[in-house]
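Prompt: May I have another protein with tokenized structure?
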Amino acid sequence: MSKLQFKNKWILVTGASSGLGEEMARQLAHHYRANLILLARRKDKLDQLKAELENEAKVNVKVIVADLSNLHDVDRAIDEVLKDGQLYGAILNAGVTYFGKHADLGWDQFQTMLQTNVVSVVRITNKLVEHFESTSNEGGILIVSSMAGLFPVPYQSAYSGTKAFILSFASALSHEIKNPQFSLSVYAPGGIVTEMTAGENFHDLQGWLMPVKQAAKEGIYAFQNRKSTYVPGLLNRVGGYFLNLLPRKFVMGRMSKVYGKALIQAQSKSK
């Protein structure tokens, strides 16, 4: 299967108002000359990015404002994305996290995480796969999971669960696709320096986080080259290999100490 070619093609990026989604949109526009459909909740941020990319990268940009924790918004957004039949690819990046004791995670907050990280991703993927299967058009989807889906993180237990679900879902679904010109890829980065990790709870974990520009570059590489599952960063890949050789209980115990210590320090600083 040949590489995806983004020039003058329409690419959907969810969660495009900040962080990894915003940076991937910038790189797709500036380095690949892709036209973009930017989707997120914050219209002001999307409009600002649209103006920047149209003026500086000279590409076409559409904005869709939607809350992906709301199923009505998800369906409305999908209809708008597919209405002209020009979609070439999608990066499903939108997500929310929580770092803290699971007992302190409110049910409404968990529901929002579940709807955003799992339900919206499955809903959008279903519709896009159906579109590309029925039309036999060339294209692809990149679903952003996380290394937390491969190695569950204590004090991010619900988040880890959502990322593990979409990793398994997309990996299995990719083998059901019949269109030889269409690919479904999963991107599983570790922690990234973004708005999601800018809070006090993540302060003592900053040294573990990948710069967002590097994470975006490697994500687009995985997308364009139709990688099945891709973990960015040599250290992450080597570390992941060796972690698989160790007893899971031991690995989880060590991670629990690191993240638990970071959480305690963050809480003491906030008092």
Remarks:
- The two ends are 55 Å apart (CA to CA).
- The beta strands are 10-14, 35-40, 61-65, 87-92, 139-144, 182-187, 229-230.
- Confidence is low (pLDDT under 50) at residues 195-207.
- Residues 107-135 form the longest helix (29 residues).
